Automatic annotation (TrEMBL), chain A:
<protein>
    <submittedName>
        <fullName>GATA amidotransferase</fullName>
    </submittedName>
</protein>
<dbReference type="GO" id="GO:0005739">
    <property type="term" value="C:mitochondrion"/>
</dbReference>
<dbReference type="InterPro" id="IPR023631">
    <property type="entry name" value="Amidase_dom"/>
</dbReference>
<dbReference type="InterPro" id="IPR000120">
    <property type="entry name" value="Amidase"/>
</dbReference>
<keyword id="KW-0436">Ligase</keyword>
<dbReference type="GO" id="GO:0070681">
    <property type="term" value="P:glutaminyl-tRNAGln biosynthesis via transamidation"/>
</dbReference>
<dbReference type="GO" id="GO:0030956">
    <property type="term" value="C:glutamyl-tRNA(Gln) amidotransferase complex"/>
</dbReference>
<keyword id="KW-0496">Mitochondrion</keyword>
<dbReference type="GO" id="GO:0016740">
    <property type="term" value="F:transferase activity"/>
</dbReference>
Automatic annotation (TrEMBL), chain B:
<keyword id="KW-0808">Transferase</keyword>
<dbReference type="InterPro" id="IPR036113">
    <property type="entry name" value="Asp/Glu-ADT_sf_sub_c"/>
</dbReference>
<dbReference type="InterPro" id="IPR003837">
    <property type="entry name" value="GatC"/>
</dbReference>
<dbReference type="GO" id="GO:0016740">
    <property type="term" value="F:transferase activity"/>
</dbReference>
<dbReference type="GO" id="GO:0032543">
    <property type="term" value="P:mitochondrial translation"/>
</dbReference>
<dbReference type="GO" id="GO:0030956">
    <property type="term" value="C:glutamyl-tRNA(Gln) amidotransferase complex"/>
</dbReference>
<dbReference type="GO" id="GO:0005739">
    <property type="term" value="C:mitochondrion"/>
</dbReference>
<dbReference type="GO" id="GO:0070681">
    <property type="term" value="P:glutaminyl-tRNAGln biosynthesis via transamidation"/>
</dbReference>
<dbReference type="GO" id="GO:0006450">
    <property type="term" value="P:regulation of translational fidelity"/>
</dbReference>
Length: 517, 108
C-alpha cells in the first residue's frame, strides 16, 4: 500500500523517511536500534524521490524504509553484532541481501539490536541492553495488566521481544520501518515475530545468500524476513532470493519472484499437525489457538491430519552440540588483529588473542565456544559431534517422510506462550531459556525447511501469539499462499501504541538500571 | 563425571578464551550433561549429515580474478598496522602456564 502511495505521490520518500526517523526517536526507549543511519537514509530517500519524480522508480521497494539486524555487514555503517568485539567496526562492504535491497531503492534506516552474536532467545544479552517489546506499551496489554500498588512507578512491567532478531521485530511492530532483515538459526526470526505480532519468514536454506551475514552456524543460518503482512514478505523474498556466486551454499536453480494468489479454495490442501509439537510447557492458550486453527482449516474443506515427527524432542540437544561446535570454529576469526576490538596486551600473539577475546565476548559467547571446543576434542568427536550429525539426518528424514505421505504444509505453534516479562525472563540463564524457547522452531533449521510465523490472536494478557507453518524445501510460494489465507481468516488486531512521551525521562532511568544490573 | 582440570586448561588454551569463574565451569558441566541425551537415540546405520544440500552439486566457477584491490579498505579496520602489514606481538611464545596467567583456574 505504501508503495502505491509513493507512486501516486500521496507521500514522498523523504517525508516517509523523516516520519520514520522521528518515530524511531520517540520510541527510543524500546532500544530496537543500535545505529540509526540518519544522513545516509535521507540521502537515499532523496535519490528515490528523484526517481519517482521522473516516473522511474526501481521497483516496489523504491523509497521504502527498512531496518537491518546488526549482524549483517553494511558498508560505511558500524556493524557490531551487539558485542564489544566489533564495537567501532565499520564494514567495508555490504552483505549481498543488503546490497540487493539498496539496489531496489530501499532506504536503510539503521541497524537493529539483537542478542550478542545472535545467541539467545530474548534479545536481552547484547552489550547495548535488552530490546523492549512494543506491545508492552500497547493499550491492549495495559488494559489486561494487573494494576500495581501506588508505590511502584507507572511503568508497565515490560515484556521481552523474543530473540535473537528482537530489534528487527520491534522495529517492524512499532511502525518505524516497513520491513526488516533478521537472521534465523534456531528460530531467531520466528520467535520474536510471534512475540511482537509480525510476520517472520525463514526461507529454505540455500535460497537467500548468506554472504555478509556474520555466521553463527554455517549449515543452518539463513537471513530472515520480518514484515507486517504475508504479501510484504513475498515481495521481500522476491528481491532477495536467488543464486549468489559469493555464497556457494546458495542453490543454482533460477528463482522467479511470485505474487501470492488470493486462495479461496483450500479443499485440495493437506495440513499436517505434528503431535510431538504439543511440547511440555506449551501454554493452554497457545494449545487452544493451535486447535482452533486446525479446525479452521478443516471447516474450510482442507484435509487436516495428525502426523508424527518422532525425533523432534532431540532437535534441541542436537542443535546444542552442532551449534556450539560451529560457533567454536566461527568465533576463532575474532583475534583483534585485522578488525574489531584489540586488547592492549602485547606480550605474545597468543596472550593478545586470549585477552582480546576475554574482553570482547560476553559469558554466553564464551560459554558456547568452550562447550563447542569440548565436543570437538578428539576423544569426544565421535560421541558428540558425529552423533549429533547422525541425529540431524534422522530429524530431516522425519520431515521427508511426512511430506512424502501427501502433507503439503505443517501447522504448529511458534512459541510456548506469549512474551514473558523481562524480570521473569532473566531469572534463568541464556542456555536454559534458549533450550525452552527454541523447541518449536529449531527442527525447521535442522532440516533446512522454510517456515513462517503468522500472528494469530492476542493472549489473555493482551500480547500477540503466532502460529507457525512449515513447508517443503523451496516451496515458499505454496507456504506463503497458505499463510496468506490464514492471515486473512484470523484478522490479527493492529497494535494500539499509546503516547509514552510523558514517561520518557522516567523510562530512560528505568532502562539504565535494567541493562546494567 | 566432572571434567578434569587438564581438560579445562586444554580447552582454555585451544579456544583462547577463559572460563573466568566457577559459573563458567558450571556452564560447561551442564552443557555436557545436557548433551548426554543424544546417547538415547539409536543411530545404527545412519550416516552423519553435514549439510541439507548434500544432494546437490557444489557451485564452481572459473578460476579468474573478479575482484580485489581493496587493501586500503581492509587495513582501515585494523588497529595496528605498518605499511600493508597487520602488526602482531611476537609469536612462538606459548600462552603462559597456569601459575603466571590471570585465570580463574589457578585458584581451584
Amino acid at each position: 500500500q505504501v508503495s502505491a502511495a509513493l507512486k501516486e505521490g500521496h507521500v514522498t520518500p523523504t517525508e516517509l523517511c523523516q516520519r520514520c526517523l522521528s518515530l524511531i526517536k520517540s520510541t527510543k526507549f524500546l532500544n530496537a536500534y543500535i545505529t540509526v543511519a540518519e544522513e545516509t537514509a535521507l540521502k537515499q530517500a532523496e535519490a528515490s524521490e528523484e526517481r519517482y519524480k521522473r516516473g522511474q522508480p526501481l521497483g516496489v521497494l523504491d523509497g521504502i524504509p527498512i531496518a537491518v539486524k546488526d549482524n549483517f555487514n553494511t558498508a560505511g555503517i558500524e556493524t557490531t553484532c551487539a558485542s564489544n568485539m566489533l564495537r567501532g567496526y565499520i564494514s567495508p562492504y555490504n552483505a549481498t541481501v543488503v546490497q540487493k535491497l539498496l539496489d531496489q531503492g530501499a532506504v536503510l534506516l539503521g541497524k537493529t539490536n539483537l542478542d550478542e552474536f545472535a545467541m539467545g532467545s530474548g534479545s536481552t544479552d547484547g552489550v547495548f541492553g535488552p530490546v523492549r517489546n512494543p506491545w508492552s506499551y500497547s493499550r491492549q496489554y495495559k488494559e489486561k495488566s494487573v494494576p500495581k500498588s501506588h508505590s511502584e512507578d507507572k511503568e508497565p512491567d515490560w515484556v521481552i521481544t523474543g530473540g535473537s532478531s528482537g530489534g528487527s521485530a520491534a522495529a517492524v511492530s512499532s511502525f518505524t520501518c516497513f520491513a526488516a532483515l533478521g537472521s534465523d538459526t534456531g528460530g531467531s526470526t520466528r520467535n520474536p515475530a510471534a512475540h511482537c505480532g509480525v510476520v517472520g519468514l525463514k526461507p529454505t536454506y540455500g535460497l537467500i545468500s548468506r554472504h555478509g551475514l556474520i555466521p553463527l552456524v554455517n549449515s543452518m543460518d539463513v537471513p530472515g524476513i520480518l514484515t507486517r503482512c504475508v504479501d510484504d514478505a513475498a515481495v521481500m523474498l522476491g528481491s532477495l532470493a536467488g543464486h549468489d556466486p559469493k555464497d556457494s551454499t546458495t542453490i543454482q536453480d533460477n528463482f522467479k519472484p511470485f505474487e501470492l494468489p488470493d486462495l479461496t479454495d483450500v479443499s485440495k490442501l493437506s495440513i499436517g499437525v505434528p503431535k510431538e509439537y504439543h511440547a511440555p510447557g506449551l501454554s493452554s492458550e497457545v494449545l487452544a489457538l493451535w486447535s482452533k486453527a486446525a479446525d479452521l482449516f478443516q471447516n474450510a474443506g482442507a484435509k487436516v491430519v495428525e502426523v508424527s515427527l518422532p525425533h523432534t524432542r532431540y532437535s534441541i540437544v542436537c542443535y546444542h552440540v552442532l551449534c556450539t561446535a560451529e560457533v567454536a570454529s566461527n568465533m576463532a576469526r575474532f583475534d583483534g588483529l585485522e578488525y574489531g576490538h584489540r586488547s592492549d596486551m602485547n606480550e605474545s600473539t597468543e596472550s593478545m588473542y586470549a585477552a582480546t577475546r576475554r574482553e570482547g565476548f560476553n559469558d554466553v559467547v564464551r560459554g558456547r565456544i568452550l562447550s563447542g571446543n569440548y565436543f570437538l576434542l578428539k576423544e569426544n568427536y565421535e560421541k558428540y559431534f558425529i552423533k549429533a550429525q547422525k541425529v540431524r539426518r534422522l530429524i530431516a528424514n522425519d520431515f521427508v517422510k511426512v511430506f512424502r505421505s501427501g502433507v503439503d504444509v505443517l501447522l504448529t505453534p511458534t512459541t510456548l506462550s506469549d512474551a514473558a516479562p523481562y524480570t521473569e525472563f532473566i531469572k534463568e540463564d541464556n542456555r536454559t531459556r534458549s533450550t525452552q524457547d527454541d523447541i518449536l522452531t529449531q527442527a525447521a533449521n535442522m532440516a533446512g525447511l522454510p517456515a513462517i510465523n503468522v500472528p494469530t490472536a492476542l493472549s489473555e494478557r493482551g500480547l500477540p501469539v503466532g502460529l507457525q507453518f512449515i513447508g517443503r524445501s523451496f516451496q515458499e510460494q505454496q507456504l506463503l499462499t497458505v499463510a496468506k489465507w490464514f492471515e486473512k481468516q484470523v484478522q490479527f488486531p493492529v497494535i494500539q501504541l499509546e503516547e509514552v512521551k510523558r514517561h520518557d525521562s522516567g523510562v530512560f532511568q528505568h532502562q539504565k538500571s535494567a541493562s546494567f544490573s | 563425571q566432572k571434567v578434569s582440570r587438564e581438560v579445562l586448561e586444554h580447552l582454555e588454551h585451544l579456544a583462547l578464551v577463559d572460563f573466568r569463574d566457577a559459573e563458567g565451569v558450571q556452564r560447561l558441566q551442564k552443557a555436557i550433561q545436557f548433551a548426554e541425551q543424544l546417547q538415547e537415540v539409536n543411530t545404527d546405520g545412519v550416516e552423519p549429515m553435514d549439510s541439507v544440500l548434500e544432494d546437490r552439486c557444489l557451485y564452481l566457477r572459473e578460476d579468474d580474478v573478479t575482484e580485489g584491490n581493496c587493501t586500503k579498505e581492509l587495513l582501515e579496520n585494523a588497529r595496528e598496522k605498518v605499511e600493508e602489514y597487520f602488526v602482531a606481538p611476537p609469536g612462538n611464545i606459548p600462552l603462559p602456564k597456569l601459575g603466571e596467567r590471570d585465570t580463574f583456574l589457578q585458584g581451584s
